[in-house]
Specification:
The structure is a homodimer. Chain A is of the alpha/beta class. The first copy, chain A, is 22% helix and 24% strand. Chains A, B: Belongs to the alkaline phosphatase family.
Chain lengths: 664, 664
């Protein structure tokens, strides 16, 4: 059937068709300018420029038998000014030209046929630059016989005033709004449709959503999206504050400075990082490190301490003030770090080093600190607080089973505030803390809904505790708190499941009839702790914190599902003795895990069979803001907007190259 | 494994466990008070009270061999006052006691065993009441040997001022935030991660979300949730501005007045209803009608015209000012309406009556109007604008195939504004319009993603056009525009699908490998119309309106999924020649439809096999507000809050029984 009224509109505006694979993700044309068209900058934000002239040998974009023209150059014009050569504009000497080649597949058919497209490249990088004057900049690359790639860059206006002294930026990794609805249902109670208590996040005076898509793809990964939140620049997948160039190498890529780095450079401010993941993971890494490959864990740990290394011109970095999380595996001696223990190295640089919650709590608040509590990720809230026997299996930094002395997100975050606040006060500056509820994402990937929602509730409990603690230490009025996610997972609750009935049935189809929808969903069966006081609407307080259910295995659980699934079995019950592994690999790819949810029914997946887990999704994710500047965070935003809003609240924009002394 | 730290918390706070089936949905105890505990009222809002004393014969709540005590009575106290009998408080005479019984199943096991629980009931209703003084009211029912059910009601404070003269309330039925993310991806373009144009909704200065759960269930239907939005009272499933009592009858239930009814009663304001569904459907019906059974279509059409009928004390209703939608089937002569054509009846009452877009546009703006364009629902935007051959199958109000002269949501809404504005001006009052993008929900239920997203984009285009039109007619400054959903569906986009590759594969597992995730999602392949002007960021304008793609069948489509699914096949392609029917019934329940998506791969469902469609979900849904009072609509709200905020903007709260003359 013909789309009748559309034939007239046959001329299409954009030549960019989606392809399964891209030549170079951040380069729509053969003449590549990074940062690309449409980039916005904070005034005085440090960045690198890279230009490439590419020539594919074959395929749909073949050029000149694969030979790029030797002549290629970049011009730039400030607002109202003339285009001048980039070297003149910034007062640089012309760098050496890089020459190399790479290959890629144009689509799945080409991959199946093992028919790659080779591409030859000429490239130059200009490093450690800043634009100081707010306004619009026109940028033009000339390449391959006079073709041009044009870019418009905008330097945002300077802020009128400094609204906040401190910023705490929480990231609920993978936390879509649907998960907050579900977490609220488990941890709080309604009477006749009215919640008697709510999430702390529900009270945020600044509220909106942000779009998480990447530079080159509408589905992001966590490196890319966290970089957008922290630098104000969308990246390509796996990129940490560095645009992925075509070299395939991890460290030459053009870098952009984060708001955390700017805060340190301009104010000498205190910077701390907390995560429940292994601490070299993408979100914590995006706070201050730079690489196009988030998997460069050894370098990331080193960058936390000493900044950008190698021959890349960048300014000095004196180390984060604290780093709390999991992932001791990346601190152990190995070939990547000259067989030196990073624990020893950090201790040698004056950091307190700890491995347990007990040691964390004993830290001197005046000293910098490194605390790593587990070999991999920190244990989930559910395992630390409910199914605690599972901690017998958790691995200590030293490699032993039985990591019982682990902190939760709240413990780490409150201690981080104490250290940052104490040190900032002594140095007459402020602090910035990034605290990540990292395991929401990890548990959503493996379809372990109870563990994921436990992490969501832990984040909410942590925000509530931070709010109270900031008030106690007199910093509430000066501290902007932002809570958001880096992306979502397609997830929702659609009813209740009578698990007793499900388990009593013998066929997959009969088991599915345990699901109650609409009126048969009923009220939440996840009971709240005793001590409830609905009359004064005080928060329900349980043994583990505020706003958690006491039952994770009621007869009537939440019936729930995901938009993107591998083959798996579903029983709508909490996994009391293990974290889920929904699918395992066989010769045809990932398939139902015979050990997982044996009492459940089978669901065939809709993802490629190379995927054994769920994946990230498109949905705009929520943004919550409290404190000075919260009013900046409202409505529908784009992920980079958050960096600009934080910069505005902290007044980070500068029309000169400001460098403040930092006192260790 | 034992949840170790939770044993201490064995005393649970709430006795209400979720059950698959409820005795009486709105009555947690055997002594039933409606409106229930926790109800909030607008000052002067009209409502009924009902009390019931129930006595189950057997089961977990059995009482006195199934004999409720004859003595049961209700007392009420105003803020700071003493409890007095409800008849004294309101100056009423005691109504007659109703005596009846009903049965229900306690759970799925009881249903499988055909073992119902009989319940005997005594009940009284007090009708057509108002509370005028803001403050807290304590309500106490004594029943069954001195047991009590207590309720707290709050009458909200009066507004300080009137902010808005007119209100346009858009409902995107079933529209979760994830669908806006997807619709934006199809209808708008990014360059390097920055959208060059966006949804009109993205610009809303008032932004938040609202919780859609019901009185008795965490998953709502559309009657219930629209009633919450329009009356400020959560209902039980299928209830339209009436609390479902235990009689099982449709019309005796205690009613609550909507903000549309209040606006008419207090100001004599103009009230219009527009929907793309059959016009007796739940969302339009919730504007002014009252029944516990949304399926009472014949009564609903009659109530639009003449208000509440029968012996129920309520005030007169002079008919809606306009009604535009589908559903001629409910206007035809039949036993429910004394074999009178409702078209004739409305014409006899002075309404202009039309059946086509041409007739709609020719309506006199000074006269009341009824326009019904199709036998059932109006055709989707996709069928009206892209796959227009499908209109050959659409059925006219007269029952003929080929309903080609149908309006879209924009046509109906703009004409409605012209009529309401003209008539309101002549009568020196304002107007309220409810306009529903109803088919988002219908298409989400049948997993027809392209049709659903077409409806989302049509809603956005309509809001944009309304904004411009209000400016033209000089009403923009006086008109509050609210856009929200009544509930969501668990849905998300998680990548792109190479449909060419999918169709070339021969097995289900190989077809799934057509999905590209993360970087392989790429950019949207849904092309935008020519005439794009990215430099001045003007909206892309195509032949059908603003912000629609010109391609609905690119090679690379959105890979997407739902949290709740029946058995179905997925091919990630637009259905060009039919609306989807994912599953069909066989002897074991709903099963894969062999005619649907034959090129796709099979996915087994996770819903009970009695379900052939997707179902509603828990996710909080977005709220957008423009115009005077928009600042009231921010952050995390509960669905009833919206009615209170509209009432506040319109200053509908009154401390006396105000009745203004209404001029037809």
């Amino acid at each position: 059937m013909v789309a009748s009224s559309l034939l007239l509109a046959a001329l299409l505006a954009s030549p960019a068709f989606a392809q399964t694979f891209r030549r170079t993700a951040a380069c729509p044309s053969l003449g590549c300018v990074l940062p690309p068209d449409q980039t916005d900058f904070i005034a005085g934000q440090t960045f690198d420029i890279r230009i490439e002239a590419q020539a594919p040998v074959n395929g749909s974009e073949a050029y000149n038998n694969g030979t790029p023209d030797e002549e290629f150059h970049l011009k730039i014009a400030g607002e109202g000014g003339q285009l001048v050569d980039v070297t003149e504009f910034f007062g640089l000497t012309e760098p050496e030209v890089e020459r190399y080649n790479f290959t890629y597949y144009e689509d799945l058919f080409a991959e199946d046929a093992h028919a790659p497209t080779p591409v030859n490249v000429l490239a130059k990088s200009y490093r450690n630059l800043q634009l100081h004057n707010p306004g619009t900049y026109e940028v033009e690359l000339t390449y391959n016989g006079g073709q041009t790639t044009k870019a418009t860059w905008v330097v945002e206006p300077l802020a009128d005033c400094k609204k906040a002294k401190n910023v705490i930026f929480f990231v609920g990794d993978g936390m879509a709004g649907s998960m907050l609805s579900a977490a609220r249902l488990l941890g709080h109670k309604t009477i006749n449709g009215k919640y008697q208590t709510k999430l702390k996040l529900d009270e945020a005076p600044g509220y909106g959503v942000q779009m998480t898509h990447s530079l080159d793809s509408f589905i992001t990964d966590s490196a890319n999206s966290a970089s957008a939140l922290f630098s104000g620049k969308k990246m390509t997948v796996n990129g940490l504050n560095a645009y992925t160039d075509s070299t395939g190498k991890a460290f030459g890529d053009p870098k952009v400075e984060t708001i955390f780095e700017m805060f340190r450079r301009i104010e000498g401010g205190q910077v701390g990082i907390v995560s429940k993941a292994y601490i070299a993971d993408a979100t914590p890494a995006a706070v201050v490190t730079h690489t196009s490959q988030r998997s460069q864990y050894t370098s990331i740990i080193e960058q936390y301490l000493t900044g950008v290394s190698g021959n890349f011109s960048w300014y000095p970095w004196e180390g984060v003030d604290l780093l709390f999380g999991g992932g001791a595996e990346n601190f152990l001696p190995g070939p990547g770090n000259n067989n030196v223990s990073q624990f020893d190295r950090w201790a040698g640089e004056g950091y307190q080093v700890g491995y347990t919650k007990t040691e964390l709590e004993a830290f001197d608040n005046a000293q910098r600190a490194l605390a790593i509590f587990t070999r991999g990720n920190i244990s989930t809230w559910l395992d630390q607080n409910v199914y605690t026997d599972l901690l017998d299996l958790a691995i200590t930094p030293q490699g032993e089973r039985g990591a019982h002395d682990q902190p939760g997100l709240k413990d780490m975050t409150l201690k981080a505030i104490d250290i940052l606040h104490t040190r900032a006060k002594e140095r007459d500056t402020g602090f910035m803390l990034m605290s990540e509820a990292a395991l929401i994402d990890k548990e959503m990937h493996v379809l372990d809904i109870d563990r994921a929602l436990g992490e969501v509730l832990e984040l909410d409990d942590t925000v509530r505790a931070v709010f109270d603690h900031l008030e106690e230490i007199g910093e509430l009025e000066d501290t902007l708190i932002v809570v958001t996610a880096d992306h979502g997972h397609g997830f929702d609750v659609f009813g209740s499941a009578d698990t007793k009935y499900l388990q009593a049935q013998n066929s997959d189809r009969a088991k599915r009839n345990a699901v109650g929808i609409y009126q048969n969903s009923g009220l939440s069966a996840y009971q709240v702790p005793e001590g409830v006081n609905p009359t004064n609407h005080s928060i329900f307080t349980g043994p583990q914190g505020e706003g958690f259910p006491v039952t994770w295995d009621p007869r009537y659980t939440i019936a729930h599902g995901w938009a993107a699934i591998p083959d798996h079995r579903e029983d709508y019950s909490v996994n009391t003795d293990h974290e889920r592994v929904p699918a395992v690999k066989n010769t045809t790819g990932y398939f139902f895990n015979p050990e997982d949810n044996q009492r459940g029914f089978a669901m065939t997946g809709n993802l490629g069979v190379a995927e054994g887990q769920g994946v990230h999704s498109l949905v705009d994710v929520p943004v919550f803001a409290f404190g000075p500047g919260h009013e900046l965070f409202r409505g529908v935003m784009n992920s980079p907007d958050l960096a600009f809003k934080v910069a505005q609240a902290l007044n980070l924009g500068r029309n000169s190259n400001v460098t403040a002394p930092y006192k260790k």
